[in-house]
Every structure is written in structure tokens, then in C-alpha cells.
Amino acid sequence: MERILSELWNGQICPAEHLGCGDEEIRNLERFIGDNADKLTKGLSEKQQTTFEKYVDCINEYISLSCERAFCEGFSCAVKIMTEAMAK
Length: 88
Prior knowledge:
mainly alpha; 78% helix
């Protein structure tokens, strides 16, 4: 257990790195997002493109924070389950 926590802490493993790998639904959504972003930005002025890029940056930061918090909550829940299971 100590080794895996150390690897998590030191960034040697990243559970979110493989999120969606091999998942056709996620690949399709990523393709759909990219295609629509390309279509949208082609029709925008330079100022609008800058605004859109800032919007995308904010969305990406939001997703990153949400994933981090979900991981932490999931890890915490798993520890509680494991603690309860070991106590019986």
C-alpha cells in the first residue's frame, strides 16, 4: 500500500491518464467536440476566437478540477469501505 501511495504522490502513476482509453463512446465525443470546435472557430472574428479560446481554457480547468475532486472523493470512499470491511 505504501508503494502505490508513494507512486501516486510522486506522479509516477496517473489514474486519469488512461481515462477513456479504448472507450469508443469517449473517442466519438472527443472527435465530435473537435469537429464542432473547428467549424465554430472558422466563422469567428479574431476577437471572438480569443474569447472562445478563453472559454475553452476555463472549461478545461473546470474539468481538470472536477476530475481531481472526483478522484479524491472516490479514494476517500474506497478507504472508508476498506476500513469498514477490515473492522468486521
